[in-house]
Amino acid sequence: MRYKLLGRSGLRVSEAALGTGTFGTAWGWGCTREEAAELFAFYVEAGGNFFDCADGYQNGEAETILGGLIAGDRDEYVVSSKYTSGVGARSLGKTGNSRKAMMASIEGSLRRLKAEYVDIYWVHMPDLVTSTDEILRGLENIVAQGKARYIGISDFPAWRISRAVTMAELRGTEPISAIQIELSLAERSAEREFLPMAQAYGLATLIWSPLGGGILSGKYRAKDVKGRLNQGGGPIRQIEQDREAKILEVLELVAGEQGATLAQIAIAWVCAKEPVGASFIPVLGARTVAQLSDNLEAMKIVLSDEQIARLDKVSAIAPGFPHELMARDQMKDLHSGGHWDSIVLPSSPRA
């Protein structure tokens, strides 16, 4: 296992995080405590130190199990948790992004984890009503109180993350160190705004669902397995299914060339897309040691430029506005006075 810095901080985290959404069975599926302990031990033995959790995972059971597993040497591990869903509570007061919900959630998480602090505390998702200012001030309080060491934002629009980063910079307060986004060969829309933003601000980027909800493992191709590839849904869904089928065909070819599984190649592709200055850390979710072992092998795979290009081509999406507009030669000519080819471009986007 190799290690990366969390954004512009000095925190050293393993190059792949272990997602703990499978720790527990409260959702009707997942791992028993004994199975979770096996996953934990295997990951740690492989050199892993970064555990990604949330208050709502398995309705709080995931934090309880993880807390028991880290108790032997709490400071050795990097533990993150999130708030917004309030442990699945059907309650206005216990859910959302408000300071009230945040404070109640961090206290509950620390009780379940049997810990005095989490290393990273995330806003899990936007509630569409709480202001960025209120969220930031609450997170600053939690760091000041010693209940978290770093803060991050998950699943927010890029413009809101940019606003939060800038607000923290102007105030000279706790910076945003990392973001969490979905990215895979099956879901590449994050490339339009999130990746340039992360690169420009030096944000660590945790990638969830690098296997596209499991479709990139190939397990949903069998007609008797229910999944995205064989679900109905009209002409738009048919277009998606055709695209996914073509991606799997190329994945299979590259996997054969590398002597690897489809899942390993899908994860290796995500790692290969890491921009300069924005550490990519895939979050690996597994229910069995065999699944985790298979996924961790992906960290050793180095895809060739030609293999990456083939995977890029088959999974490509339209850049959209304004990227397509500004990529036109006439626009480059217009805003450079005809000297675009003479400009030495910066290595990363300018914020």
Can you describe this structure?
- The protein is an alpha/beta fold.
- It has one domain: TIM Barrel.
- Helices cover 40% and strands 14% of the residues.
- It contains twelve helices and ten strands.
- The chain is globular and about 60 Å long.
- The two termini are 32 Å apart.
SSE layout and pairing:
Elements: E1 3-5, E2 12-14, E3 17-19, H1 33-45, E4 50-52, H2 61-70, E5 78-83, H3 99-113, E6 118-123, H4 132-144, E7 148-154, H5 158-171, E8 176-182, H6 194-201, E9 204-208, H7 234-258, H8 262-272, E10 280-285, H9 289-296, H10 305-315, H11 323-326, H12 329-335
Give the radius of gyration.
21 Å
Give the integer mean of the pLDDT values.
93
Count of β-strands: 10
Strand content: 5-15%
Structural class: alpha/beta
Across the major sheet, the strand order is 3-4-5-6-7-8-9-10
The CATH architecture can be given as Alpha-Beta Barrel
Biggest beta sheet attributes:
8 strands, parallel, barrel
Task: Output the CATH homologous superfamily.
Answer: NADP-dependent oxidoreductase domain
- What shape does the CA trace take? globular
CATH class annotation: Alpha Beta
CATH topology: TIM Barrel
How many angstroms does the end-to-end distance come to?
32 Å
Helical element count?
Answer: 12
Helix content: 25-40%
How many independent structural domains?
Answer: 1
The string of secondary-structure elements, in order, is EEEHEHEHEHEHEHEHHEHHHH
Poorly predicted regions: 223-231
